[in-house]
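Lecture 7 notes: from sequence to structure.

We start with a single chain of 198 residues. Read the sequence below before looking at the structure.
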Amino acid sequence: MAEKTAIELLQEFADKTGRQAQSSVKDQSVFAMHTQTMHARIIWFADNPGSNRFFAAFSNPKYFGIRAIYSGVFIPVDVPQKALVHIRKKTIFDKLKFPNLRKSEKFNNRKLDKKLVLNGEQIERAAKILYDQKIQHEILNFMKKNPLYRIIINDFDMSFIPEFSTKSYLGLVRIDWECDEENIENLFSEIKQFEKHL
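Now the structure, written as tokens:
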């Protein structure tokens, strides 16, 4: 029996928990006589019927870095769509002060500035979220428990979820597809903590 794909595992999880998943698989191969088939894959579902909390997993071999393959949970937020924010844990490269291609900002919170990197474009447009003490507390707690994850605002094209084609979003994301059922449920719980303060 063939091993199940990540998209099949997530579809089964959605079905088992009464969630309606939407998915697509598109051939991204470029040559007519290609020897390796490449596919773009997407699956997403709401936490509950009518909920504004979504889990999504995306992969496309034509992209690079975290944008090529990621998954996470997302909620709408009231900030301009031009505000692009990416928060991640600091690495050794940040401590060595290698140049960063994106504008970096400070949280004006010593604990957060010491442990996390905040970068993006037009970050000031998301100030009401980023500089709120309760949200900063949630950011620090989440990143302590989930060092592989990142917190983003509008940093990826999430227009495949109709809710985010015209609205901004906040997401808790990681590189690769999260297929562990317990971890997905925990992510929905974590995003609810952010939602309380928005």
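DSSP finds six helices and nine strands in the chain. Keep this in mind for problem set 3.
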